Amino acid sequence: MVQKKSLWLRCETKEFEHRSALTPTTAKQLIDQGFDITVERDPQRIFDDEEFEKVGCKLVEHNSWSSAPIETPIIGLKELPPNDTSALPHTHIMFAHCYKQQGGWKDVISRWEAGQPTGMLYDLEFLQDERGRRVAAFGYHAGFAGAAVGTLALAKQVGSEGEKDRLGEIHAYPNEGELIKYVKGQMSVIEQRLGRKPRALVIGALGRCGRGAVDFFKAAGFEDDNIAKWDMAETQKGGPFNEILEADVFVNCIYLTSKIPSFISPESIAAAGDKRQLRVVVDVSCDTTNPNNPIPIYSINTTFDKPTVDVDGITSGPPMTVVSIDHLPTLLPREASDAFSTDLLPSLLTLPQALAERAPRQGTAITASEVGSGPERVWKEAEALFWKVLGEKNAQ
Questions:
Q1: Is 197 marked active-site?
Q2: Per the residue annotation, which of 14, 28, 97, 229 is the catalytic one?
Q3: Is there a catalytic annotation at residue 171?
Q4: pLDDT tens digits, residue range 173-211?
Q5: 121 forms bridges with which residues in the sheet?
Q6: What is the pTM of this model?
Q7: What are the annotated disulfide bridges (predicted)?
Q8: Strands 36-40 and 120-123: what pairing?
């Protein structure tokens, strides 16, 4: 069976989301390989509609993907609009946030179950190469942006009387240079109020996300000796870790797959009392509703218009706030989208082959042992994972 090469880029409906799963550059490369690319108009996307039109994409109305031909895969980034339980009979490529038993995960994946036999979720978070490494991820820019927002939150807090002020609405920056320039301008406020150079601690420093956080801190003017770079070797003894409480900003960049001892806890914070320096926690991993979250001091995601949430129960020492924005890379949407889409492109080129192979068994589960090793393996593995999670949902 010859599978038509096509993709439908949907708009992003999440507030303040400016990134795109495809860019005009990668769309053009797909078109050059025989793909038909349909792009929904999107006023908040960092790339203008005309940029896609100029490279040969077909533009359609905003949020019209439900009318797409059933055989055309729908590609996007963030979750679909909430409060919708309608069936999803299309193939969707996206971050669905329902494979680690996050809050409401059963309702999310049930929509594809209701869309059988044609419905399928290829979750971008779980597209992996033969070594188990994600083929495309926003990790670097997530860490970079997280460190930036954490530094800005610190500056706003310590720069106010009684540390009562909080960081207000933040907006996307046109490029890394502009972001670094602005944050550098806030460093003098931090140093003046603290009476010393600020200190940061990054957990997961050897990964893409952690490298991004460390790179930002260095670029913004943190001294290298004041950036604690932790990874598995430093955390293997198990938390809570008092060293975290000695930093001014703590950035969590780990990819959580199982329960581990908490990095910090209400009890460890209380025990530190007035000796605690920690004021801002940035949870880039943002597993807010994950029962295994190693930072059990907050319970909500923050947003671009309200970037921080106060930690409750603080009775001594300075106030403490948490940044838990789950789409931090959109602070640098053009660069983040370019990097992600470029990494995803080789896998997208093999998608038609995977869809053609799936077509005869539409609606029938496959297991990991049936994935094989062909160029379309990344999609078959994601397909097997979909059926595995769906089975877990139905077994509960």
A1: no
A2: 97
A3: no
A4: 999 999 999 999 999 999 999 999 999 999 999 999 999
A5: 92
A6: 0.88
A7: 209-253
A8: unpaired
The residue behind tokens 């490029």 is 175
Given the DSSP bridges, would you call strands 200-203 and 249-252 parallel, antiparallel or unpaired? parallel
> Is 279 assigned a ligand-binding role in the annotation?
no
* Catalytic, out of 5, 14, 78, 141: 78
pLDDT at residue 2 tops 70? no
212 is in an annotated binding site: no
Q: Where are the alpha helices (DSSP H) in 11-138?
A: 24-32, 49-54, 105-114
208 labeled binding residue: yes
List residues bridging with 179 in a β-sheet. Answer: none
The token duo for 125 is 């978070």
For 203-229, give the DSSP string: ETTTSHHHHHHHHHHHHHT--GGGEEE
328 is in an annotated binding site: yes
User: Per-residue b/e over 160-186, b at no fewer than 16 CB within 10 Å?
Assistant: eeebeebbeebebbeebeebbeebeeb
Question: Pairing between strand 308-310 and 249-252?
Answer: unpaired
List residues bridging with 9 in a β-sheet: 39, 75
Residue 300: exposure state from Cβ atoms within 10 A (0-12, 13-18, ≥19): exposed
Virtual torsion, Cα 288, 289, 292, 296, nearest 10 deg: 50
Name the 3-class secondary structure at 269. Answer: helix
Q: Is the pLDDT of residue 128 over 60?
A: yes
What is the chain's Cα-based Rg? 22
Average pLDDT (7-30) is 96
Reply yes or no on whether the pLDDT at 121 is more than 90: yes
Alpha helices in the chain (DSSP H): 24-32, 49-54, 105-114, 139-158, 176-194, 208-220, 232-235, 266-272, 333-349, 351-358, 377-395
- Percentage helix, strand, coil for the chain under 3-state DSSP, each rounded to 5: 40, 10, 45
Establish whether 303 is an annotated binding residue. no
**Pairing between β-strand 280-283 and β-strand 58-60 as defined by DSSP bridges:** unpaired
Query: How far apart (Å, rounded) are the C-alpha atoms in residues 45 and 343?
Result: 19
